[in-house]
Amino acid sequence: MRTLLRSSIFAAGVVFLTGPVMAAGNVIAFKNDSCVAIHLEAEGNDACFGYGGCQIQVAPYQTKHVELRPGVRPKWAQINVTGSCEEKQLTLVGQCAVDLEQVFRGSGYMPGRALGEGTGDLTPAFEEVVGPFDPGVSFATVRLSVGLCEEMDGHDRCDVRCDVD
């Protein structure tokens, strides 16, 4: 019985330690409204923002939620988008500029470091989050879709269309 009890406690501890990250700050939802497997590379006026780098992948018709790293808040972000959709013979390429100060208006979002955050070497960052989300989390949605296309050698090369809510 003691062995079973210890195993149960150990398993509960493992679940707790490896549970999803809970968002508490500013979250951007990248919503892919296309058949293209999108590769995003983002940078802000303070540097790139990504815990695992500045790049994330968003599968066709999927959404990824990412949280800005606490401590550093960029004023703007430039998102470089590339990807292709073989079933429709198209390639998606382009850039989106996102004014984060405008997107998170009304939430108290102020670019730069907050008072008391120290002078450490923090880099703006994405951290993918799954939820649940804390009350008070500020959300922005960047919808990525196919814009204007131009045919080249039987293959469409399309601009990315970015809509920010």
Structure in words:
It is a single chain. With 165 residues, the chain is mainly beta. It has one domain (21-164). Helix content is 12%, strand content 46%. It is built from 2 helices and 10 strands, in the order αβββββββαβββ. It has helices at 2-17, 100-103, and strands at 26-32, 37-44, 47-48, 55-58, 63-68, 76-85, 90-99, 126-129, 138-152, 155-164. Strands 1, 2, 3, 4, 5, 6, 7, 8, 9 and 10 form a 10-stranded mixed beta sheet that branches. The protein is elongated, with a radius of gyration of 19 Å. The model is unreliable at 1-21 (pLDDT under 50).
Topology summary:
Elements: H1 2-17, E1 26-32, E2 37-44, E3 47-48, E4 55-58, E5 63-68, E6 76-85, E7 90-99, H2 100-103, E8 126-129, E9 138-152, E10 155-164
Parallel strand pairs: 1-9, 7-10
Antiparallel strand pairs: 1-5, 2-3, 2-4, 2-6, 5-8, 6-7, 9-10
How would you briefly describe this protein structure?
The chain is mainly beta. The protein has helices spanning 2-17, 100-103; strands at 26-32, 37-44, 47-48, 55-58, 63-68, 76-85, 90-99, 126-129, 138-152, 155-164.
Considering the chains and any ligands shown, give keywords for the structure.
mainly beta, ten-stranded mixed sheet, 2 helices, about 10% helix
